[in-house]
Amino acid sequence: MSNIRTVARLAGVSVATVSRALAKPDLVSPRTRKKVLAAVDRAGYKPNLMAVQFRSRRTRNLVVLVPTIANPFFSRVITGIQQRAREAGYQVLLCNTLGQEDIEREYARMVQNFQADGVIQLRAFDPFSNEADAEGAGDDSLLPMVNACEVMPDCSYPSVQLDNRAAARAMTDHLVRLGHQRIGLVKGPQRSPLTRDRIAGYREALEAADIPFDESLLCPGDFSLQSGHRAAGTLITRDNPPTAIFCENDEMAIGAMQRIKQAGLRVPEDISIAGFDDIAFAAYSDPSLTTIAQPAEEFGATAAQLLIDLLEQGPANAPAQVLLPYDLKVRDSTGPAPTSDS
Amino acid sequence: MSNIRTVARLAGVSVATVSRALAKPDLVSPRTRKKVLAAVDRAGYKPNLMAVQFRSRRTRNLVVLVPTIANPFFSRVITGIQQRAREAGYQVLLCNTLGQEDIEREYARMVQNFQADGVIQLRAFDPFSNEADAEGAGDDSLLPMVNACEVMPDCSYPSVQLDNRAAARAMTDHLVRLGHQRIGLVKGPQRSPLTRDRIAGYREALEAADIPFDESLLCPGDFSLQSGHRAAGTLITRDNPPTAIFCENDEMAIGAMQRIKQAGLRVPEDISIAGFDDIAFAAYSDPSLTTIAQPAEEFGATAAQLLIDLLEQGPANAPAQVLLPYDLKVRDSTGPAPTSDS
DNA sequence: GTGAAAGCGCTAACAC
DNA sequence: GTGTTAGCGCTTTCAC
User: Which PROSITE patterns does the UniProt entry name for this protein (chains A, B) (predicted)?
Assistant: First the structure.
C-alpha cells in the first residue's frame, strides 16, 4: 500500500505539500497541485483515514443510537439523517441498541474514544448520564448529542420531536366528533415520554368534550403487532366494550384490527381503529388505517443538522428544541359510532 | 484528556506495561495489572481508539452494505449480523446504500481506507469490481467481503443464500396442488438474481405438472407495496385472469391483496395470493399470507461468521457457499382454485 | 509556496 | 515481566 511519502517522492515534493494539496488545495500553486494529483493517481494512493482522523482529532463520523431498526418509522428517520450527514461530509454509524442500556452506553462511548464526533439518540435515555455521576466528575460540559423522536423530559440537549400531546388530542377529537364516547387506548412502553404525552392528549380531548376519563379503557402495549392483538382482545371482551380504539402506533393498530375481525366484528362499523406514525403498511391494511403522519425524514435531517451545528459552531446558549408538525390522515378504519348502544 | 503516559506515571510503570495490562492482561503480573487498573480509574483514562486502530492496523469494524434498511427482512438479517459480530468483538457500521452504486463504492472504500476490516454486502453487486479494472491493477487479491441474501452469480466471495429456486418451486407446487393452472407471478427487480432464480423455480414446478409456461402471466415489480398493487390490477383485468398470484415478496403480496379486494374479489375464494419472506406483517394481513419463511437472523449470523473467519484465518482455498433452508408457511391466503372455470 | 521536523497516542520488537 | 525505543501515516507549526 502506497503512503504519502511514495506520492511525495513521485511528485518530487515534500510530504507536507502532498498533505496540503489534498486537504487545502488553495494553499499550493496550481502547478504543484497538478503534479501531486498525478502522482496520487499513479501510486493508486488512498489516504489512511485512521491516520488522518487520529492526527486531526476528527472522524467525521456520527453515531446514531436506534432502539430497533425493525421499526419502519425509524428507518425513515435514519434515511433523513444519512442524507443530511452525507451532504455535510459526515458518515453515519448506525447502532441498533435493542433498547438495552449497556449496549447504548457502549456505543455512546465511541465519542469519548474518539471514534465519532457526536451522537444522535432516538430514545429518551441519556447514555452519558451515570458515567459522570459515578466518577463524581465535575465535567459538566455535555457531550455532543442530539435527542430526537422520543425526547427526554427537561432535555438539556438539542432535540427534535413531534407535539405528541397535540397529535393525540387531535386524533381523539376526531373520534369524539364521530360520536364515540368510550374510546380505548392502547399504550406504548410504560417508561416512554411518548406514551405519557399521548395519554395526556387523549385525556385533554375527552375533557374538552365532557367525557369522563375511564382508566380501565387503557391497555398496556409495547408497539408490537402482537401486543396490539392482545390488547384488542382484552378490550372487546370486557363489559361495555369501547366503540373505538386508539393505538399509540400503527403496528399495534394493525394487530388490533386482526383481533377484532377474528371476533367477527367489523371495522369501522362495529369498532373504529386509529393508529399513529403512518407507516407504509397503514395505507394497505384492510380497511386502510386512520393515523397520524409524522415527517420522519425531516426528523432525521433536522437532528443531523442540529448535531452538525453543535459540532461546528459549538453549543448555543440554549439548546434548540424543535417541534415538528403532525398530520391527521383520515382513512377507512374510523367511522361513526354505532347508534344502538351496546 | 488523559493519555497512556499519564496512567504510566500514576502507576509508576512504563507505557508499554500499561498497554499490555489493558490489551493482553495475562502478560503482566497480577500486582502490576492491579496498579495499572487503579491508575486508569484514577485518571479517568479512555484509550484513544483512533490511535489504537491506527497503530495496530485493525479497526474491529465491519461494514454492512444494505440496499434499504426499510425492508423488514433486512432488518432481521442485520440484527443477526450484529449479534454475531458483537460476540466476536467487532462493531457493525451499517451503510444504507439505497441501491446506488456510487454510495456503495464509497462505503466499500472504507476498507481500503483502513476504516473497517471487512464488508458484508447484501446485494448482488461487487463494489470493488471496476476500481481494479480501471487501475489495470494486477491486484487479484480479493478484498475481505462476504455476499449474503442476494448473491452474485459465479460469486468468488464467500456467500450465504437461500435456495431460491427450490423455494419458488415449492410455493408454485403448493398452488398447483390446489388445482391452480393459471398462476400469475409478480417479479422482483429485473436485474436481481433473486428474481431470476425464483422465476426458474416457478417454471420448473409448472413443467413438472405439465402446465404450459405463459410469459404473459409474469408482471414486473420492484418489491414495494405499490408495485404489488399495480401488478395485481394488471393481472385481474386481463382476459382469462389467473386464479392465483405468486408475489416474489410479502410487501407486493400485501399490495396485491388490497387491489384484489378493491375489485370486489375474495382471497382466496376467487384468487389465491402467495408471498415470499414471511415478514411480521404477513401473519397480520387479512387473510393471513401464505409465504416462504427465511431464517433471516441466521443469514446475518452466518455471514458475519464467514467474514470473521476470512479476517482471522485468511481466505480458504474455495470460498464457502452456504445455502440456508426455507420453510413454506401455508396460511389463509391460498386455497383451492375456483371450480367454475370462466 | 514549499520543506524540515516535531509530534498525535499508541503498539510491538527487542533488550534486560 | 517489564522497560526502552522506534515508528505507524499523517498534519502542522515554523523557517525559509
Answer: HTH_LACI_2
B69, A94: Cβ pair inside 8 Å? Answer: yes
Please tell me the total number of residues recorded for chain B in this structure: 342
CB proximity B272 to A under 8 Å: no
Helix/strand/coil for A288: coil
Distance CA A48, CA A42 (A): 17
Residues of A in contact with B284 (CB under 8 A): 225, 229, 254-255, 258
The pLDDT tens digits of the residues spanning A2-49 come to: 899 999 999 999 999 999 999 999 999 999 999 999 999 999 999 999
What does the pLDDT read at residue B137?
42
The DSSP output letter for A159 is E
* pLDDT score of A128 more than 60: yes
Pairing of strands B183-186, B218-219: parallel
Bridge partners of A162, per DSSP, are A324
Nearest to B44 among A78, A135, A281 (CB): A135
CB A319 within 8 A of CB A145: no
Q: How many CA atoms lie within 13 A of B226 on its CB side?
A: 2
What is this structure's pTM? Answer: 0.90
Nucleotide nearest to A114 (CA to C1'): C9
Range 124-163 of B in CB contact (< 8 A) with A: 135, 137
d(CA B277, CA B329): 10
Q: Report which of A237, A262, A258 is spatially closest to residue A247, judged by C-alpha positions.
A: A258
Nucleotide nearest to A14 (CA to C1'): C3
Question: Between A and B, how many residue pairs show a Cβ–Cβ distance under 8 A?
Answer: 119
Q: What is the dihedral of CA B60, B62, B63, B65, to 10 degrees?
A: 180
Given the DSSP bridges, would you call strands B327-329 and B291-293 parallel, antiparallel or unpaired? antiparallel
What are the grid coordinates assigned to A67, written together?
A: 432502539
Could you identify the residue whose CA is nearest to the C1' atom of nucleotide C1? A28
Residue A248 one-letter amino acid = E
Residues 6 or more apart whose Cβ sits within 8 Å of residue B25: B33
**Which grid cell is A137?**
466528575
N- to C-terminal Cα separation, chain A: 78
Considering CB atoms only, which of A53, A70, A94 is closest to B50? Answer: A53
Chain-centroid distance of CA A89 in Å reads: 21
Do the beta carbons of residue B146 and residue B303 sit within 8 Å? yes
Q: What is the pLDDT of residue A318?
A: 87
Q: Which pLDDT does position A141 carry in this prediction?
A: 62
